[in-house]
Amino acid sequence: MRRLAIAIPFALTLLTGACGKNSQPPPPSSGTPNAQQESGPGRTAAGQPSQAQAMFNTVCVMCHGPDGTGNGPAASSLNPKPRNYTDPAWQASVTDDQIKEIILKGGAGVGKSPAMPGNPQLQDQQDVLDGLVKIIRGFGKHP
What is the dihedral of CA 31, 37, 40, 41, to 10 degrees? Predict the structure, then answer.
């Protein structure tokens, strides 16, 4: 019993100490050992998510979903529902400048849903703003 009383705290110490190590998920892999990471849409040349992709993944996905269909985790509690970026009619009806304005001002700022927050901090980050538009436009492309 005494060994167990010593072993449990020791094991917990090891486990909690190990939890902080390698807390980052492994990078995407092509399946080939020692292969170089590839760049692609939303990724930098080093294979890391671009600032725009990182923002989309942390902010926009909550409502618009990872696939852009408006089915994010918060979508069920919103009325009106978030925009479905895969809708070809919507894609054809809006310009890139209008998308940028919605991102910057939010829904209330352009007469849309007040649940869509504005991101005025992106006014001086045109590369991130352009990247977000590219991501949104990417959902409208069908294979």
Answer: 90
Q: Strand, coil or helix: what is 142?
A: coil
DSSP assignment string, 11-56? HHHHHHHHHTTT-SPPPP--SSTTPPPPP-TTB-TTSPBPHHHHHI
Contact 122, 104 (CB under 8 A): yes
Nearest to 107 by CA among 74, 138, 79, 73: 79
Q: For residue 63, give the H/E element and its range.
A: helix 61-64
Picking from 59, 46, 45, the residue whose alpha carbon sits closest to that of residue 129 is 59
The residue with greater pLDDT, 98 or 11, is 98
For the stretch 1-12, pLDDT in tens is: 444 444 444 333
Question: What pLDDT, in 10s, does the model give residues 58-96?
Answer: 999 999 999 999 999 999 999 999 999 999 999 999 999
